[in-house]
Structure formats: C-alpha cells, structure tokens
Design goal:
The chain has 278 residues and is an alpha/beta fold. It is globular, with a radius of gyration of 17 Å. It has helices at residues 55-60, 87-101, 113-124, 150-156, 162-170, 177-189, 192-204, 209-215, 232-241, 256-259, 261-274; strands at 14-20, 23-30, 37-42, 64-69, 106-111, 129-135, 219-224, 246-249.
Length: 278
C-alpha cells in the first residue's frame, strides 16, 4: 500500500478515463511533444494510479509519455463480480491500456502486486513492450505468514465491510485529514471480487522468472532501501536470475515513487532512455 504525500496534481498531469477494448480505466497521464516512448505504470495491491503521480513529470522531463492507471476493480476503475481477475486478465488489461495510448511498444513497470501482473503481461503480450521494470516485487507470490495474514483477509472479504477492514488496517496510524480521507475512499472503493483475487494471487502466484529471461526483453529491477514486502534476498536473487543488478533506492521503503521520486528517477530513467530508441 502506497501513501501519497500530496493529492495535488503536478503541472501537466491529467486525470482521465482511458477507453480500451477491455473497458474503461481511470488514469493519470502526461504527454510530451514528439515523445521518445511511452511508459505504463501498474500499481500494487490496495494501491492506485496516485502511487505514481509524482513520477509522471519526471518522466515527461526527459521526453517520455506516461500513464498510471487503476487496475480492474481498483479504486476508480469499475469491476464486476464476474470479471476476469486472473493474472492473465490483469495482464490483458495492461496491454489494452497501453494499446489505447500508443501504436508502438511501451516501457512497462509493475510495483509490488503490479510486478506479478507485469511479469505475466511480458510473457503473454511480449510485443506490447520495450522493456520490463520490476519495483519492490518478487519472482512469485509473497505467500502468507503470521506477519502478513493475507489468508485471513481473503476470508473476511465479502463478509466484513471494507470500511471495517480499513479501520483495522489504519489503527494507530497518524495521517493528515486529507490523506486519511483519501486512503479511506480508495480502500472502500475497491471491488471486493478484485481485492480478493489480488490477495489470492499474492499468496499463490507462480514463478515466471525463467520465462521472463527467455524473452530477451530488457529488464530493470529495483527496491526501496527499507522495503518490507518481499525479502531483500529474494529480490536480489530474482535480479541475479535475470542477469541484472538490483538498484536500491535510498530514503524509501515499499513505495519509492511517492517516498523519494527523484531518487527513484535517478536510478531508473537512464535505463528507460537507453531502450527508447528504435
């Protein structure tokens, strides 16, 4: 879960609804004249497009169009109970959002749970992407433990009101009034079916790293210095299997895009620029 530092949209960032062949998706976008390439950003579990808003002007400043969107059933993107919430379904959504924005391949970044979606999208829609970036995510499911009782949440979803779950999750956390209101609205706006499916994927998603490596797609891996989701050793081993170095972003934990956007940009944007020329 990422917590925005501000709800003010930076100059040039536009809130919009993207109409794709897989339905509408709420998004924050930024355009530049004659862009080098397009970047698609997939948020994580209980996250949203706002998780990336501070990054959009930084990407635009180097000539990159960018789109951050709410996944199916997440925050301001609608989701029905009978929608396809498989990893393949979420991956198809990503490819459809990218295709609605540009005719060429996009750079793809997935954060946390979004990284599992991005890996599936890379394998199943390879021609849609210039590169794959994995941020604060792992090679497969996070799993379940006493520290992360995700299976308990799966059981509660659909029986316990989302507002009650939100209050439990926020207990003892101090936030400014506007951010607290946003966090409540975002969590309680989620489709229960979507949130349940995402949670189950975090427990059971398979390892796709061998398949990613076989694609020969340019890959970048990074994490916040104090990330507390996938163990640091697991992320480092994932990078090793992909034959890349893991970039560690200072002054950040699980959400570098809002905690230290400039630091994140400094270690990520050179990779994007390297792979933005046909």
């Amino acid at each position: 879960m990422s917590t925005p530092q501000s709800l003010l949209l930076p100059e040039g960032v536009e809130p919009t609804t993207i109409e794709s062949d897989r339905g509408p998706f709420a998004a924050h976008t930024i355009r530049v004249p004659d862009p080098l390439a397009h970047v698609l950003l997939i948020p994580g579990w209980t996250g949203s497009k706002e998780d990336f808003t501070p990054m959009l002007p930084l990407l635009a400043s180097v000539g990159l169009d960018a789109t951050a969107y709410d996944q199916r059933g997440q925050f301001e993107t609608p989701g029905a109970d009978d929608d396809d919430y498989s990893l393949s379904g979420f991956a198809a959504d990503a490819a459809a959002v990218a295709a609605s924005w540009t005719t060429g391949p996009s750079h793809l970044l997935g954060h946390s749970f979004g990284g599992l979606v991005a890996q599936t999208a890379a394998i199943e829609h390879t021609s849609s992407w210039r590169s794959l970036s994995l941020l604060d995510t792992g090679p497969s499911a996070l799993g379940d433990s006493s520290q992360r009782p995700l299976s308990s949440l799966v059981q509660a979803l659909g029986t316990v009101p989302l507002i009650d779950i939100h209050h439990i999750r926020e207990k003892g956390i101090k936030r400014t009034k506007d951010i607290a209101a946003f966090m409540e609205r975002r969590f309680t706006s989620n489709s229960v079916a979507s949130l349940r499916a995402m949670t189950e994927h975090l427990i059971h998603a398979p390892d796709h790293i061998a398949g990613i490596r076989d694609l020969r797609l340019p890959v970048w891996v990074g994490r916040g210095a104090d990330d507390d989701a996938w163990p640091h050793a697991v992320q480092a081993e994932m990078a090793r299997r992909l034959d890349v170095a893991i970039e560690v972003i200072a002054d950040s934990a699980h959400s570098p895009a809002v905690e230290n956007p400039q630091g994140f940009a400094d270690v990520w944007i050179p990779f994007l620029l390297e792979h933005s020329h046909d």
